[in-house]
Amino acid sequence: MNILVINAGSSSLKYQVIEMPSETVKCVGLVERIGMNNAIFTHEKNDEEYSEVLPILNHEVGLKKITKTLLDPKIGVINSVDEIEAVGHRVVHGGSKFSKTTIVNQEVKDNIRELFDLAPLHNPANLTGIEIAETIFTSAKQIAIFDTAFHQTMPKEAYQYAIKNEFLQKHHIRAYGFHGTSHKYVSEKAIEHLGEESSEKIITIHLGNGCSMSAIKNGKSIENSLGFGPMNGLIMGTRSGDIDQSVIFFLMKKLNKTAEEVSNLLNKNSGMKGLTGFSDLREISEKAENGDENCKNALNLAGYRIRKYIGAYTAALNGLDAIIFTAGIGENSSLMRKLACENLDFLGINLDLEKNKIRSKEIREIQTDSSKIKVLVIPTNEEIEIAKQSCIHLEEIFIHK
């Protein structure tokens, strides 16, 4: 079975064609900087990479470029769109209605649309991906995999807010958690690598343009730093992370900002971008190295926030066996891993600075020999996880027919 996996982010579009159940990856690709004239398109097949810089102003243009490449006689992997039997879509927010993988129909699309306000940078892009894929891959099953699903195991004390009970009961206002596909994938890899007895209490740290951390006990999520929407917690590329609610009221009342203006500010013009003018950590790190004080400060703030959550989640877990870094920044930025692990020796976390500098696509341990806590870098593969869940769901439907 050929499954096309589409992972539409706020400004990116990842894809893979995966043959299941063997998990054979036929090709991988990525569209970066969607919305810009100098978007970067990369496509890899059999370890040979093709790249191009071109204008890709929206996700529709990006997905059509991907389809054209998949059908290309030289670098493509299919001869007809009918060879794709299922398209697995990452959807960020499933709200209270979606706690598991589901086949897409009109009701599902309407429900995803209703959640736009809770994930304004993601759910619109996710739905666009679904709707365009429906017009291109007409014979394929469209399947939605929700980022919030893995965190449905969070206990009530972790997901309920201290506001009137009716807001939870009637309006489903609660913490949902996000990046669940990634946290699930790397936590399972960590358990395989370390063994169940050595991985009962782990913290997974997903660092990309969007960032989150999860406390995972015996393979199940009990906490996630993102909440009702994907804006809380860590400092992100353009999102503020944790902020005192009083700041929002101040912006609206004293500075006459509308709700939409405040939302745009906190979602699109805060975080690293707000602190430095740049959202790409590579640029920020380079400028910090060259003496830019704003960039130095932003990196220190981001590192401090991660360390604070490590401490909090160690308490929630009542101990700690390992921490795992993953996603674009977590896997590739030795600097951010170093900042995240500073001054945590009281917890038994000691980073080996030389091991930390090694780049690899494999699972690796980067703690010192004397460190009580394992520190791992595990490349995430949300696409494989999405393909697995899509395949399992289709098999379950077939069995119950």
UniProtKB/TrEMBL annotation:
Homodimer. It comes from the Bacteria. Pathway: Metabolic intermediate biosynthesis; acetyl-CoA biosynthesis; acetyl-CoA from acetate: step 1/2. The record marks H179, R239 as: Transition state stabilizer. Mg(2+) binds at N7, E382. Catalyzes the formation of acetyl phosphate from acetate and ATP. Can also catalyze the reverse reaction. It is found in: Cytoplasm. It catalyses: acetate + ATP = acetyl phosphate + ADP. ATP binds at K14, H206, L207, G208, N209, G210, D280, L281, R282, G328, I329, G330, E331, N332. One of its GO terms (cellular component) is cytoplasm. Its main location: cytoplasm. GO terms for molecular function: acetate kinase activity; ATP binding; magnesium ion binding. SUPFAM superfamilies: Actin-like ATPase domain. The active site is at D147. PANTHER family: ACETATE KINASE, ACETATE KINASE-RELATED. InterPro entries: Ac/propionate_kinase, Aliphatic_acid_kin_short-chain, Aliphatic_acid_kinase_CS, ATPase_NBD. Substrate binds at R90. It comes from Polaribacter porphyrae. PROSITE patterns: ACETATE_KINASE_1, ACETATE_KINASE_2. Pfam families: Acetate_kinase. The lineage of its organism: Bacteria, Pseudomonadati, Bacteroidota, Flavobacteriia, Flavobacteriales. Keywords: ATP-binding, Cytoplasm, Kinase, Magnesium, Metal-binding, Nucleotide-binding, Transferase. This is Acetate kinase. Mg(2+). Can also accept Mn(2+).
